[in-house]
């Protein structure tokens, strides 16, 4: 089928200004976007009903693809690969850096999302359980945890948590530093136009940068690589502006509401006090004015002999006798 007809890319939902939170989905979205060809995003909250019960799924006529490499090969066949125009040396570099990211950064990301207890309990599991319908919201998180364990066990021979974390974070930080050096001051990895390497880097870094992790150790290292942070923001704003703008608008509105709520709470005791004082002053003023103009008069008390006897104390009464 001609690429004049749009491709359909079925992905996990997005959040935090990203079109999807899943890095495999983001890789394909960025790759197809960088190719310049039209496509449509279909958000899926339950991959159970897809052909392989996984996401992403890319369809174009009778062609159906389930992973990044398949889509990349298809775009090459159609002569719309974003790597078109790279030299032989640059193509080799592109493959080498892509392999490095997969080997050194991906295991750490799997650990951060699915095996770190704080992140899993405070972010990952609640997010997926909210998005995925019952009862599949019990199945898929456990499946992803199992996949993450296999990935980490394949690269870590040690058994203690601290040793595993040290190795994963060390490899990932070195990888991020290498990517930062490669990018330098350029807009994209190989110059002014994005390539497949930019798609891979964006997919791996964007969720790491944007998600509100409870344990942000690697996220903090990424934030120290300012050019990588700018790369993620540049791709979000240029190629996925609707998601980026919607999130920024939502965040500003939430900030305004939070400030208004804070102001109301802080003014509450002073406002209540001032209202009571003002009411009392007004009451006294109106009462005094009413007495002054004769609108209100004090009651007349008639006294007689028996009334007076009532006010004598026993002691005084005895003295008079």
TrEMBL record:
<feature type="domain" description="Metaxin glutathione S-transferase">
    <location>
        <begin position="172"/>
        <end position="235"/>
    </location>
</feature>
<dbReference type="Pfam" id="PF10568">
    <property type="entry name" value="Tom37"/>
</dbReference>
<keyword id="KW-0496">Mitochondrion</keyword>
<feature type="transmembrane region" description="Helical">
    <location>
        <begin position="276"/>
        <end position="296"/>
    </location>
</feature>
<dbReference type="GO" id="GO:0015031">
    <property type="term" value="P:protein transport"/>
</dbReference>
<keyword id="KW-0813">Transport</keyword>
<dbReference type="InterPro" id="IPR036282">
    <property type="entry name" value="Glutathione-S-Trfase_C_sf"/>
</dbReference>
<keyword id="KW-0653">Protein transport</keyword>
<dbReference type="InterPro" id="IPR040079">
    <property type="entry name" value="Glutathione_S-Trfase"/>
</dbReference>
<dbReference type="InterPro" id="IPR033468">
    <property type="entry name" value="Metaxin_GST"/>
</dbReference>
<keyword id="KW-0812">Transmembrane</keyword>
<feature type="domain" description="Mitochondrial outer membrane transport complex Sam37/metaxin N-terminal">
    <location>
        <begin position="25"/>
        <end position="144"/>
    </location>
</feature>
<dbReference type="GO" id="GO:0007005">
    <property type="term" value="P:mitochondrion organization"/>
</dbReference>
<comment type="similarity">
    <text>Belongs to the metaxin family.</text>
</comment>
<keyword id="KW-1000">Mitochondrion outer membrane</keyword>
<keyword id="KW-0472">Membrane</keyword>
<dbReference type="Pfam" id="PF17171">
    <property type="entry name" value="GST_C_6"/>
</dbReference>
<dbReference type="InterPro" id="IPR019564">
    <property type="entry name" value="Sam37/metaxin_N"/>
</dbReference>
<protein>
    <recommendedName>
        <fullName>Metaxin</fullName>
    </recommendedName>
</protein>
<dbReference type="InterPro" id="IPR050931">
    <property type="entry name" value="Mito_Protein_Transport_Metaxin"/>
</dbReference>
<dbReference type="GO" id="GO:0001401">
    <property type="term" value="C:SAM complex"/>
</dbReference>
<keyword id="KW-1133">Transmembrane helix</keyword>
């Amino acid at each position: 089928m001609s690429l004049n007809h749009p491709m359909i890319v079925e992905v996990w939902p997005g959040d935090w200004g990203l079109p999807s939170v899943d890095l495999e989905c983001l890789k394909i979205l960025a790759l197809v976007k960088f190719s310049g060809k039209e496509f449509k995003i279909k958000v899926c909250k339950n991959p159970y009903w897809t052909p392989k019960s996984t996401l992403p799924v890319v369809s174009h006529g009778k062609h159906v693809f389930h992973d990044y490499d398949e889509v990349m090969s298809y775009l090459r066949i159609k002569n719309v690969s974003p790597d078109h125009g790279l030299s032989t040396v640059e193509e080799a570099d592109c493959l080498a850096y892509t392999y490095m990211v997969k080997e050194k950064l991906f295991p750490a990301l799997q650990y951060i999302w699915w095996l770190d207890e704080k992140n899993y309990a405070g972010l990952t599991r609640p997010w997926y359980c909210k998005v995925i319908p019952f009862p599949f919201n019990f199945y898929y998180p456990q499946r992803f945890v199992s996949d993450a364990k296999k990935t980490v066990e394949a690269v870590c021979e040690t058994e203690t948590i601290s040793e595993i974390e040290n190795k994963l974070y060390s490899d990932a930080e070195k990888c991020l530093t290498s990517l930062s050096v490669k990018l330098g001051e350029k807009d994209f990895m190989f110059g002014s136009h994005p390539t497949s390497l930019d798609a891979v880097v964006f997919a791996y870094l964007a969720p790491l940068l944007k998600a509100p992790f409870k344990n942000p150790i690697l996220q903090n290292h990424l934030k120290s690589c300012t050019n990588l942070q700018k790369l993620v923001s540049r791709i979000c704003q240029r190629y996925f502006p609707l998601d980026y703008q919607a999130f920024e608008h939502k965040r500003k509105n939430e900030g305004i509401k939070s400030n208004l709520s804070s102001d109301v709470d802080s003014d509450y005791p002073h406002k209540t006090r001032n209202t009571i004082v003002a009411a009392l002053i007004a009451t006294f003023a109106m009462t005094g004015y009413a007495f002054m103009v004769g609108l209100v008069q004090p009651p007349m008390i008639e006294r007689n002999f028996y009334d007076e006897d009532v006010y004598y104390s026993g002691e005084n009464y005895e003295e008079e006798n």
